[in-house]
Specification:
Chain lengths: 306, 485
């Protein structure tokens, strides 16, 4: 054993060193999570409208078209749990806050990031936002959360090719790469399949997260807008009617329970035409502008009524 | 907990340190620690089944103790049957009940009688086929007086629940592993470093070869209608590689981990795809199971049928392999797979004289090459039954594969699939794997001697290269195939 332990340590030392260096360099790559967190740390008290949600909202609601100071805190695959956690973290700092927009997608109530195919993204909330109550220790590390190959690719992409991994602008809006082709038929089918979940395990928790946001907002005199974003028909027609009705019922129940909450369902809003979509369930820049202006009108109307 | 998971990467070093540095003074304390670690390891998957594991230890321990105190044959036989019914009963309830209900209802429907049978929602406890067979093997050895009944319950529980082996074997023998729990274990540097090499090679097999082959084999087996005959043959070959790399990789890790804890565990694979007959294959593939079935099923059965001569032996073989198929899973595909192997083994016996005559007339090298080729093709084809979800799909797969093999466009499609989909990097890894396996075919594991005579820096470069390949080719953690059995 006297021989084994030192030799083994000597053997794994270069590997440990490599891992530590990779972890450090991975953490130094600027990313959207860090950018958003830093923005909220510095500007939270100025924000009047705060937008949450997954990629639907991240790429569908552009703060640029809102009249008050607005920030999009949503991100790809962000679940209601993390909307709630971000709100909890900054709620006391956001003294100018008037409206919170919580997008309710078809999958929102049945989806939880840590139990999805995108679970690896959990590390971003643990490492960069500092939310530490996660089940797996691997999410405390950049290196352990992704495959080695992906990590090497990220390092090469940033440090050697000089490519940026930032996709959000200064207001947190996710600008789309407009050169990418879209196939509304294919993306509609794939997204509908991916978003249809029979398991109801997370419904209760997700209702609790939204309810908690609304409840906290009520105490601070803040309006909450629950909104289902527009989607193209190739996605809509393939949605499971039971899951869709359950989603609408949950959102309606919340808006009926709380006076500071309204629910707007724009899923099949005819104002949005084919050219407004990047994929069947994501708006493009033009669609985002249309939706943002629409939401801004609703917010202004509500504020005037108040 | 999977061997290829981060959880195990943390669990095992902790166990190793406590085992050798904190509880190493007293043997019983060390054994108790193995039991605790094994229950944690098993409970990590689903703690509700810990009671099942504990009851398995308790019932077989009591039966063993009672067998050691009784000499009257009827009572001993009753005790043996108690253990058989208990262990096989567990398997029937957890593994086969739904299958039997379904088959029963289907049989009645076939004869025009409509029965309504509702299937039960039973979760299959991982490793149940392995630890029940290990425990049952112990009772059989005590019954036959080949082994002494273990007096110490902790040692016995450590033997049944030993965490490196509990999920997918190798199924150890009471005569081999159990006495090791009664002897003081001393740390052996050579054994430990060899164990580490075996773990490294096991991880390479699992992560680099099996998981990458699985990706493309799944692609083909999930929609065989999309591919032509030659590509289906590529799919069958990929699955052949996958199942070997997966299961032998698991066995290598299990044996390596055991060696780090000071235990010697039986070898489970011995270059099975180099077999020159199906009988030879079963001497090299899943050796722990095939010897278990030989000793506790085939031998007693063939003795009972000895008056029937060769027919009796062939029949005993066929029954043994039907049950071997059923052991793998509650599906007709496994039964047919086992049945085909049983028939091939029967043919081996029946045609022994004729083959001997042919062999004398032929060049031994040519004869062996032809024998190897026939055996390999048979093994590859039978894996199609093993992998397919049902018999209909397996038959359709084989039919499409055979009909399209000679079509030029099909061969071109297979080449394109191999080159463009699988890609040169994975093909290079598969090539490297085959070369290293061939070089190490006479050793306990492929890395046993490889590089041992090289200078240390060069050897370290080899180890780092293997680690780098494991890291670069790893994707999502994949379960080991044999966990489902």
């Amino acid at each position: 054993m006297k021989k084994f332990i030192p030799r083994f340590i000597l053997f794994i030392l270069p590997l440990l060193l490599l891992f530590v260096l990779m972890e450090a360099f991975l953490r130094m790559i600027p990313n959207d999570y860090l950018l958003k967190k830093k923005y909220l740390d510095v500007h939270a008290e100025k924000i009047q409208t705060l937008v949450f949600g997954s990629s639907h909202a991240f790429r569908g609601i552009n703060p640029e078209y809102f009249s008050g100071k607005t920030f999009n805190a949503g991100y790809v695959s962000q679940s209601l749990k993390y909307d709630y956690k971000i709100f909890e973290k900054y709620k006391h700092q956001m003294t100018a806050l008037k409206t919170v927009v919580v997008p309710i997608s078809y999958f929102s109530f049945v989806y939880e990031l840590e139990h999805s195919i995108e679970a690896w993204r959990t590390k971003n909330y643990v490492i960069y936002y500092g939310f530490q109550n996660t089940a797996s220790f691997k999410y405390y590390s950049e290196l352990l959360s992704n495959s080695f190959k992906i990590n090497v690719t990220r390092l090469v992409s940033y440090y050697i090719r000089g490519e940026s991994s930032i996709s959000s602008d200064s207001n947190g809006y996710g600008r789309l790469d407009i050169t990418k082709n879209t196939d509304l038929e294919r993306t509609g089918k794939e997204a509908a399949e991916r978003h249809t979940v029979k398991d109801q395990a997370f419904v209760k928790d997700n209702c609790f997260y939204v309810q908690s946001i609304i409840e906290d907002c009520r105490k601070q005199g803040v309006q909450v807008i629950l909104v289902t974003l527009p989607a193209w028909e190739t996605y809509r027609v393939l949605l499971d009617s039971q899951q869709l009705i359950a989603m609408e019922n949950n959102a309606n129940n919340l808006s009926e329970t709380y006076r500071n909450c309204i629910y707007i369902n724009l899923l099949d809003d005819t104002d949005f035409v084919k050219n407004d979509f990047h994929s069947a369930d994501h708006l493009n820049d033009a669609g985002a502008k249309k939706l943002s202006l629409k939401l801004n009108d609703i917010i202004n109307q509500y504020n005037e009524q108040r | 907990m999977l061997f290829n998971s981060l959880d195990f990467a943390v669990f095992f070093p902790v166990v190793f340190i406590i085992y050798w540095f904190m509880v190493n003074r007293k043997l019983q304390l060390q054994n108790l620690f193995i039991v605790i670690a094994s229950f944690v390891f098993y409970g990590w998957w689903d703690w509700r089944f810990l009671a099942l594991l504990f009851s398995g230890c308790l019932v077989n321990y009591i039966v063993g103790r009672l067998l050691s105190t009784r000499n009257d044959k009827p009572v001993r036989r009753l005790l043996l049957w108690t253990a058989v019914v208990y262990n096989i009963g567990l398997l029937v309830v957890f593994k086969y009940l739904n299958f039997f209900i379904g088959s029963f209802v289907s049989a009645f429907t076939f004869f025009g009688l409509n029965l309504s049978g509702s299937s039960l929602n039973i979760v299959l406890p991982v490793g149940i086929s392995f630890f029940t067979f290990q425990a049952l093997g112990y009772v059989l050895e005590v019954y036959r007086r080949n082994a002494d009944a273990e007096r110490n319950f902790i040692s016995f529980s450590a033997f049944v629940s030993f965490f490196p082996l509990i999920l997918a074997g190798p199924i150890e023998r009471a005569t081999h592993l159990l006495p090791q729990f009664s002897k003081k274990r001393t740390f052996d540097y050579t054994k430990a470093t060899d164990g580490l090499r075996q773990i490294l090679w096991g991880l390479f097999k699992k992560i680099v070869i099996a998981d990458n082959c699985a990706e493309f084999a799944n692609m083909i087996f999930d929609s065989p209608g999309n591919y032509s005959g030659a590509t289906l043959a590529v799919g069958a070959l990929l699955y052949t590689l996958q199942i070997y790399a997966d299961f032998s990789g698991y066995s290598d890790i299990a044996i390596g981990v055991s060696r780090l804890l000071g235990f010697d565990v039986i070898r489970n694979f011995n270059s099975p795809y180099l077999s020159v007959s199906v009988a030879d294959f079963w001497r090299r593939w899943h050796i722990a199971l095939s010897t278990w079935l030989r000793d506790y099923l085939f031998s007693p059965l063939s003795i009972k049928l000895r008056n029937a001569g060769t027919t009796g032996v062939v029949f005993a073989l066929f029954v043994t392999f039907l049950l071997c198929g059923l052991w793998h899973g509650a599906n007709y595909t496994f039964i047919v797979w086992g049945g085909l192997h049983g028939l091939a083994l029967g043919w081996d016996i029946i045609s022994a004289r004729q083959r001997k005559k042919i062999r004398k007339k032929m060049n031994p090298g040519v004869y062996n090459t032809i024998s190897w080729l026939i055996t390999f093709v048979f093994i590859v084809c039978t894996w199609i039954f093993f992998r397919s979800p049902n018999l209909h799909e397996a038959a359709a797969y084989i039919q499409s594969m055979l009909s399209g093999l000679s079509v030029k466009s099909s061969v071109v499609e297979a080449f394109n699939f191999t080159y463009w989909e699988i890609g040169p990097a994975i093909l290079a890894m598969i090539g490297l794997f085959i070369i290293i396996e061939l070089l190490g075919r006479k050793q306990q594991h492929a890395l046993e001697r490889l590089g041992l005579k090289w200078k240390a820096p060069l050897r370290y470069v080899m180890y780092y290269a293997i680690i780098l390949a494991i890291l670069l080719f790893s994707g999502q953690e994949q379960q080991f195939i044999y966990f489902q059995f």
